[in-house]
């Protein structure tokens, strides 16, 4: 695609305020089908590290619920906050067309729910790192996307009820002991 057409194409599939007000269901689905920037290798790595274990552990249906909840709720809340910023004069009116696509809110939600896959005390270290990764951008000049990522992590953590009955938590110490023989 030419750069101009690509921008037009992605903007029509973006969960920006303009598109959400016109066709919310369509853009909530289609925005989740694209990656920002077109660099797929980091996403392939992150899917292998986070999404694959989460789907295997939770099952496809529960994993999809976590992904959808994180993507939809974080998109709606972050865009709502952006709309408030526009109305309050903090953000320019042109921000209604800000490009907002990608799979990152679903990823952040899955990172959150995976907290419950790890046995204590390792769980707390994982949660501290995940929280720092998503909270650190909020300490400088947070964007609506930074807020959305942090919200998606919290939504993933709120999906705890989906993890019940999914087997024993993974203990890294047991894995290391087994590898040593």
UniProtKB/TrEMBL annotation:
Q: Signal peptide location in the record?
A: none
Report membrane topology: Multi-pass membrane protein
Q: Does the keyword Transmembrane apply?
A: yes
Q: Which domain of life is it from?
A: Bacteria
Q: Which UniProt keywords apply?
A: Membrane, Transmembrane, Transmembrane helix
Q: Give the location in the cell.
A: Membrane
Query: In this record, what's one Pfam family?
Result: Rhomboid_2
Name of the molecule in the record: Uncharacterized protein
Query: What organism does this protein naturally occur in?
Result: Streptomyces malaysiense
